[in-house]
Amino acid sequence: MKQFWLFSKQTLISVESSQLPSAQLQLRILSFNIRYATTSPFTNEKPWSERFPLIMNQLHHETRYMSGASLNTSHSLSSVIPVPTAAIICLQEVLHSQLTDILHSLNGSTPTGDPMHGPIWAPIGVGRDDGYTKGEYSPIIYPIALFHLLHSETVWLSPTPEKPSIGWDAGSIRILTIAVLECKATGRRVLASCTHLDNAGSESRKHSVEIILRTLKRVEKDWMNDGTLPIFLAGDFNSFPEQEAYLLMSQSEYMYDLREFVQRQRRYNDPITFTGFEPEKDKDEQGRIDFVWLGPKDSKNCSWAVDGYAVLPNVFDDGIYLSDHRCVVGDVCLLC
């Protein structure tokens, strides 16, 4: 019997799956900083052409049977799969060429096809440098057979969030990607969000979290149905749990760290999410800086039930690092 941990106002309540309501959305959330395709690699960093197939092996494995690709589209979704199981992929440090490669692979399309519109997965997001295709994306990739996209936007983490811009002491332009998705089978809406905070500026990280919280609250208010809009935020915070960005988010009384709702013995793999490409040399920088957050705390009509948390390996016997980060995976169930 599968066991869940209910996420509700910082309370952990163990329940058996047989006790859960029959109408629910089971969701796997992936957050992965894949490392941009640099022309000046670090020592021990392989080029994108070598890392890409390994990253895709991991993404395909972790999302198998969670895209709705095998559904019989001649019937209604609700009659085919009353309890949808879906994956949503949130990535960071993705250049346009990398996003194209990833979508080609996920959609099984030929190099001459346009993978951005499916047929299985579609991306949400823009390049941070110009709001189109230049610079890094923080994309949200969702299965189009399972969700309608109701709303999307990009917010720049700066004093001018409506346009491409750099904020405070940041070393790079930073963005928040927003998507409101509606489950085709149940009509339930989810606010999905993905970000990558600055590595250089503490002030930037602090103000970025403030902007993120304001944005999530605004979108929640605008797009809730039945008085609620469940939220998740995935991303690379460039902040350890004892540092400013994590503390500000965790003390917001609005969003909670998914990992803390999984018992220690049920968490898979190492707590470290950033390893670097040279573990011994990068030891002082290693730690948990990639997170999946759930909210909102004060939701009266919906609750997240947390089923699992994992940090996936980023290097195997061949010695090739997929990235300097590890992919974080959260398994949740939406109860309304």
From TrEMBL:
<dbReference type="GO" id="GO:0000175">
    <property type="term" value="F:3'-5'-RNA exonuclease activity"/>
</dbReference>
<dbReference type="InterPro" id="IPR036691">
    <property type="entry name" value="Endo/exonu/phosph_ase_sf"/>
</dbReference>
<protein>
    <submittedName>
        <fullName>Endonuclease/exonuclease/phosphatase</fullName>
    </submittedName>
</protein>
<keyword id="KW-0255">Endonuclease</keyword>
<dbReference type="InterPro" id="IPR005135">
    <property type="entry name" value="Endo/exonuclease/phosphatase"/>
</dbReference>
<keyword id="KW-0540">Nuclease</keyword>
<keyword id="KW-0269">Exonuclease</keyword>
<dbReference type="GO" id="GO:0004519">
    <property type="term" value="F:endonuclease activity"/>
</dbReference>
<feature type="domain" description="Endonuclease/exonuclease/phosphatase">
    <location>
        <begin position="77"/>
        <end position="325"/>
    </location>
</feature>
<keyword id="KW-0378">Hydrolase</keyword>
<dbReference type="Pfam" id="PF03372">
    <property type="entry name" value="Exo_endo_phos"/>
</dbReference>
<dbReference type="InterPro" id="IPR050410">
    <property type="entry name" value="CCR4/nocturin_mRNA_transcr"/>
</dbReference>
